[in-house]
Automatic annotation (TrEMBL):
InterPro entries: Pmp4. It comes from the Eukaryota. GO terms for cellular component: peroxisomal membrane. This is PXMP4 protein. The lineage of its organism: Eukaryota, Metazoa, Chordata, Craniata, Vertebrata. It holds the Pfam family Tim17.
Length: 213
């Protein structure tokens, strides 16, 4: 037992010594990026998939749990692959050119996005739309910071909120098929299902009657 413990301590010391080597830092950062991508993807997707599945999806408990596990795995895997690809290409470009420049980030992310998130599926679609909204806000702020757009005299957020809600409800009411399925489900629950009831049970307690009446 003691010999096994000594061997384990020696292995840990060797691993820690390797991790402190600066010449391996770029490669190790790529590996840790893969790890962090997998963990973060699971943390983000698991609770979201759990809530959305049990709120809006039908099927047996086994089918629901399988759906949650599949969505979590896909999100975790894709994010891990993307971070691995991005950081690997960043390190490679920096080594080839001897320095880091802004274009490296854009190019590496474009390649990673094409390879990892290029497939049009529900998970990738949600991630891309999440990023798109943040990008639009970020570019707007950057345009003001750089002086391309004058600093607003009043906070433009109320106007943005009004236009976004006006547009999305117009799309939902008249062009519903253009919206993402999960958003359609959420809005159907909020705006369509609230128009239907039969008695106090499905007015206050349940959303829909389940007795077939």
């Amino acid at each position: 037992m003691a010999g096994g413990g000594d061997a384990l301590h020696a292995l840990l010391r060797a691993a820690n010594a390797l991790l402190r080597q600066r010449r391996y830092r770029a490669a190790l950062a790529v590996l840790k990026g893969f790890r962090n991508g997998a963990v973060y993807g699971a943390k983000i997707r698991a609770p979201h998939a759990l809530v959305m599945t049990f709120l809006f999806k039908s099927g047996s408990l086994r089918e629901k749990l399988k759906s949650i596990a599949q969505a979590t795995y896909t999100h975790s895997r894709n994010l891990a692959y993307f971070v691995f690809t991005y950081k690997g290409l960043m390190a490679l470009q920096s080594q080839l050119q001897g320095k880091k420049i802004p274009f490296h980030s854009f190019f590496a992310a474009c390649i990673g996005g094409w390879l990892v998130f290029g497939e049009n599926n529900p998970i990738n679609s949600q991630i891309i739309m999440y990023l798109l909204s943040r990008i639009l806000f970020g570019l707007s702020r950057l345009a003001v910071e750089k002086g391309y757009v004058p600093q607003p005299k009043q906070d433009p957020f109320p106007l943005v909120a009004a236009l976004i809600w006006g547009t999305v409800l117009w799309l939902f009411e008249y062009h519903r098929q253009t919206l993402q399925p999960s958003l359609q489900s959420s809005m159907t629950y909020l705006y369509d299902d609230s128009n239907v009831w039969h008695d106090i049970s499905d007015f206050l307690i349940y959303n829909k009657r389940t007795d077939g009446k």
